[in-house]
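Lab manual, section 2.4: Encoding a predicted structure.

Procedure: take the sequence of the chain (130 residues), apply the prediction step described in section 2.3, and record the output as structure tokens. A sample record is shown.
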Amino acid sequence: MEKTVNALGRRKAAVARVYVTAGNGKFTVNGRDLADYFAEDTLLYIANQPFEVTGTAGQFDVKANLDGGGVKGQAEALRLGISRALCEVDREAYRPALKAAGFLTRDAREVERKKPGQPGARRRFQFSKR
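Recorded output:
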């Protein structure tokens, strides 16, 4: 694989634009190293899950642009983007494993909007009889 494969991953308000090329496992997120960008081990684990599941750790270089949301949402958006890119690289080899792990499904859960006349989306102000 000589060319760059790009894919888009989304989760909550986070958007990840992912560019995958054949390489030696270099991981760049917003111009920074992956371990530098995601300080927590759990977030690093989430970002690397597609490579662990497909057994391709260290075979691809990843360049990603992350925008919006929080760190957890960004990590999960990155996971979806990498999974989609790997499917474009070799559909027959990687898709079944990624699908079984649930990495190709866009998590559609979004924050419900706050309603007028109440403090939150579902929460109501305390009822006072008198």
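Check your result against the sample. The domain at 5-101 is CATH 3.30.230.10 (Ribosomal Protein S5; domain 2).
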